[in-house]
């Protein structure tokens, strides 16, 4: 019970960055932490240990093997809906959209701060989002705002999931 | 053609695991304790960047066959540490240097004077920190690299 029960994988190709994230988490009382330096190491650790939460830099998540896409789509993924907080030192719209469209649960723009990281952890634990499997996207529901829709209703509720016609 | 999208409801697994909700567990005191860990690492980051700048200069000065690879590695590391600590301009110049070395792999010639000026820019911005001048330096570095790769690309037909 408590935050200390969460098993967390940190991925960053910079040792100092990995250590800072681990320091922040330990400072907040989380202790089940594993650190990796590459997409390949991260994949091995994720498939072996199925962490509750992955906190990783874009360089690890979006390497040549596209780890984030593998988590979301591979049949043998330990948890396609796994919470993934993606970190990036570049907050330009193009990179943010790439991470969002690859299925990041939360995006954390560096510089790192304890407050911003803990806020993302609160978000993934307390405000989980629906999981979408669509022809061209798999990941958390990207719609954060609820807005009125006046068009024809095409949603069909079946067995506690929604099936949506995608033209 | 119509294809199916399936939407599964949000999972409360993590909330159950922490015993209800994370928000009440993350108090201001918890955040403050975590923030002190970041402050404690700031000096280490400064030393790390200085050491890497020395290694960068050494790699450039030696001009060994694998100098470009080592320059890229050091610039990449500076970019990462700078980004982690919010030194945007330093990170941007290191990014320009990485972009230039990446360009070399496409057949561009090594321009030692440009690399030297980028290393000097990194040194200067590392010493002065964030300022309007360092922003200008970072923009100039990006412009110089873009121009070098563009012109070289034209000259080689690449």
Would you write up a description of this structure?
- The complex is a heterodimer of chains A (167) and B (158).
- Chain A has helices at 15-27, 39-49, 58-61, 67-73, 93-102, 114-126; strands at 7-11, 32-36, 53-57, 83-88, 106-109, 131-134, 137-140, 155-158, 161-166.
- Chain A is globular.
- Chain A is 35% helix and 26% strand.
- Chain A has six helices and nine strands.
- Chain A is of the alpha/beta class and 167 residues long.
- Chain A has a single domain, classed as Rossmann fold, CATH 3.40.50.
- The model of chain B has no long low-confidence stretch (mean pLDDT 87).
- Chain B is built from six helices and one strand, in the order E-H-H-H-H-H-H.
- With 158 residues, chain B is mainly alpha-helical.
- The longest helix of chain B has 35 residues, at 28-62.
- In chain B, helix 4 packs antiparallel against helix 5 (112-128).
- Chain B has a single domain (44-156), classed as Four Helix Bundle (Hemerythrin (Met), subunit A) (Up-down Bundle).
- Chain B starts with a strand and ends with a helix.
- The interface between A and B is large, with 56 and 47 residues.
CATH fold group of chain A: Rossmann fold
Q: Ranges of chain B with pLDDT <50 over ≥5 residues?
A: none
Q: Strand sequence of the main sheet of chain A, in spatial order?
A: 2-1-3-4-5
Query: Beta-strand level of the residues of chain B, as a percent range?
Result: under 5%
Q: Return the CATH architecture of chain B.
A: Up-down Bundle
Please give the domain count of chain B. 1
Helix-strand makeup class of chain A: alpha/beta
In N-to-C order, the SSE pattern of chain B is EHHHHHH
Helix segment tally of chain B: 6
Q: What's the total number of strands of chain B? A: 1
Counted beta strands of chain A: 9
- The CATH superfamily of chain A turns out to be Response regulator
What portion of the residues of chain A fall into strands of 2 or more residues?
A: 25-35%
CATH C-level name of chain B: Mainly Alpha
